[in-house]
C-alpha cells in the first residue's frame, strides 16, 4: 500500500510512536504534542480509545496542512470477565475530518502487582516500568512490551500494527 501521497500529523513527540509511523508508512509524520483530555494513566479500554481519538482530532486541527491526524494512546484495562488480569493496550486513531478508524494493538498481560500498584498509588505505568528495568524513558523506546518479552516485542512494533490497522481503510481500494 502506498502512503506517500498522504500527509500525516501525529499528536505526540514520543519517539516510540514516531518510530511506529515511520515503520508503518515509510514517512516521518508532522508531530505536535496535543492533550489527550483523558487521565495521564488511562485505566480502561474506553478511556484509552477516547484519548487516542482526542489526540487524532486535536492534531489535525493543530497541523492544517496534514490530511490525516493520528492519535496514539497506551492504557491499562482490567479483564474481569475471563482472566481477572490487567492488560496493557495500545490504540491508534486516524481521523481525516470526516471519517474515524481505530487500530487496536496487542493486549498484553501485565504482572498483577504492576497493575494493582498503578491503580492503588495513582502512578503512571512508565514509572513502574522504568523502576523494574532500572533504566529511564522506556515509554519512548521498547516500553513494557520490551521489558516483559526481553526485547522480543517492543512498543514501536505494537503501535506500527495499530497504525496500519487505522490507516488502511483510508488507503486501500478494498474499502471504497
Ligand atoms: O508522550 P505521550 O504521547 O503522552 O506518550 P506516553 O507514553 O507518555 O503516554 P500514553 O498516553 O501513551 O500512555 C499512558 C501512560 O501509560 C504508560 N505506558 C503506556 N504504554 C507503555 C509501555 O509500553 N511502556 C511503558 N509505559 C507505558 C505511559 O508512559 C503513560 O504513563
Note the main attributes of this structure.
single chain; 40% helix; Maf protein; binds inosine 5'-triphosphate; 176 residues; alpha/beta
Give structural notes.
By secondary structure, the chain is of the alpha/beta class. It is 40% helix and 20% strand. The two termini are 14 Å apart. The mean pLDDT is 97. Bound molecules: inosine 5'-triphosphate (ITT). Inosine 5'-triphosphate is lined by residues 12, 14, 17, 36, 40-41, 51, 73-75, 88, 124-126, 129, 138-139, 143-145, 155.
Task: Assign the structural class, choosing from mainly alpha, mainly beta, alpha/beta, alpha+beta, or little secondary structure.
Answer: alpha/beta
From the spread of the alpha carbons, the general shape counts as: globular
Radius of gyration, Cα only, in angstroms? Answer: 16 Å
What count of helical segments does DSSP give?
A: 6
Q: What is the element string, with H for helices and E for strands?
A: EHEHEEEEHHHH
Strand element count? 6
Which architecture name does CATH use?
Alpha-Beta Complex
Small-molecule binders here are: inosine 5'-triphosphate
So what's the CATH class? Alpha Beta
Give the overall pLDDT as a whole number. 97
Estimate what percentage of residues fall within beta strands.
15-25%
Low-confidence stretches: none
